[in-house]
Amino acid sequence: MLTYPDIDPVAIALGPVKIHWYGLTYIAGFAFAWWLARRRAETQPRSPLLRDQVDDLIFYAAVGVVLGGRLGYAFFYGFERLSADPLWLFRLWEGGMAFHGGLLGVLVAMAVFARQQGIEWGRLMDFVAPLAPVGLALGRLGNFIGQELWGRASDISWAMVFPRDPLTLARHPSQLYQFALEGCLLFAILMWFSRRDRPTWAVSAVFLMGYGALRFAAEFFREPDTHIGFDALGWLTRGQILCIPMLIIGAALFYRAYRPPNS
Q1: What is the 3 state secondary structure string of the chain?
Q2: Which residues pair with 171 in a beta bridge?
Q3: What is the pLDDT of residue 96?
Q4: Annotated domain spans of the chain
Q5: Which residues of the chain have pLDDT under 70?
Q6: pLDDT, position 263
Q7: What is residue 70's predicted lDDT score, i.e. its pLDDT?
Q8: What is the pLDDT of residue 135?
Q9: Which of 112, 220, 236, 250 lies 20 to 30 Å (CA to CA) from residue 49?
Q10: What angle is formed at CA 118 by the lines to CA 117 and CA 120, rounded to 5 degrees?
C-alpha cells in the first residue's frame, strides 16, 4: 500500500482568503488552452480562428465550463438538494462541478461564439476539442490533492488510504487513473488525430468517443457518489450512464464525417 502524499488543499492563504489547488488547476487548464489555441491558430493552415480571436474564445469557453459545470452538477447529481434549497446553486464555494454539464455549457458557448464570428460551428468544435484534455487532467490532480472522488476499496499494492476518508479504507487512486486516461492519453490521441486535415466533426467525434470510453472504464475503479450509489443494473454509475450518449453521438458524428457522398 502506498502512503498518500498529504498535501494541503489550500495553496495560498492570505488571512481569511484561501486559494485552493483545485481552483488553480482550472486557471492552469485555461492558460494552457489559451497557449495551445494561439499556437494552433498560427500554424494550422485551415484554422477557423485567427490568433487575435483566441482571447475571446477562451473567455466564452470559461463561461461555458463554469456555468454548465455547476448547472450540470445540480441537475445530474444534486437535483434533490436543488429542489429543497434553490439558492444552493449559487454557493459555488461549497463545491460541485460536473464534466458533462461543462461539456454542454461549452457547446452552447461555442455555438454563440461561432455565430458571432461567422465561423462554422463544427470546424470550431474540431479546433477546440484538443484544447480540453490537459485541463481535465489538471482538474483530476486537483481532485487528488483535495481528496475528492476517490476510488473503490482495493488490496492492490498501490492502493491508498485517504486521510479524509471516514472509513479509512485502502482505495484505488482513481483520480490519477482519470488523470492518465481522460487527460494525458486522450490529449495524445487528439493531437495525433488532428495533425492531418479531417472532415468537419471528425475530431469532435473522436473526443466524444474517446472521453466516453475512457471515463466509462475509469468509473469501474471510482467510488460511486454516496447519495446516488449505483444507478442501473446494479453496477452502472451516474457517470457511466452520462457517457453512453457521448459514445452514441460521437459514433454518429464520426459516421457523418466519413460517410460517402450521396449516401
Answers
A1: CECCCCCCCEEEEECCEEEEHHHHHHHHHHHHHHHHHHHHHHHCCCCCCCHHHHHHHHHHHHHHHHHHHHHHHHHHCCHHHHHHCHHHHHCHHHCCCCHHHHHHHHHHHHHHHHHHHCCCHHHHHHHHHHHHHHHHHHHHHHHHHCCCCCECECCCCCCEECCCCCCCCEECCHHHHHHHHHHHHHHHHHHHHCCCCCCCCHHHHHHHHHHHHHHHHHHHHECCCCCCCCCECCCECHHHHHHHHHHHHHHHHHHHHHCCCCC
A2: 153, 160
A3: 81
A4: 10-258
A5: 93-94, 262-263
A6: 60
A7: 92
A8: 96
A9: 250
A10: 115
Q: What local confidence, expressed as pLDDT, does residue 133 receive?
A: 97
Cα atoms in the Cβ-side hemisphere of radius 13 Å centred on 50: 4
Quote the pLDDT of residue 19. Answer: 87
pTM of the model: 0.93
The set of residues, in sequence order, having a beta carbon less than 8 Å from that of 130 and lying 6+ positions away, is: 36, 40, 187, 190, 191, 194, 203, 207
Cell numbers of 146, please? 483535495
Q: What residues are paired with 170 via a beta bridge? A: 161
| Residue 262 confidence (pLDDT) | 66
Q: Is residue 220 within 8 Å of residue 151, measured between CB atoms?
A: no
Q: How far apart are the C-alpha atoms of 99 and 106, rounded to whole Å? A: 10
Neighbours of 157 (CB within 10 A): 8
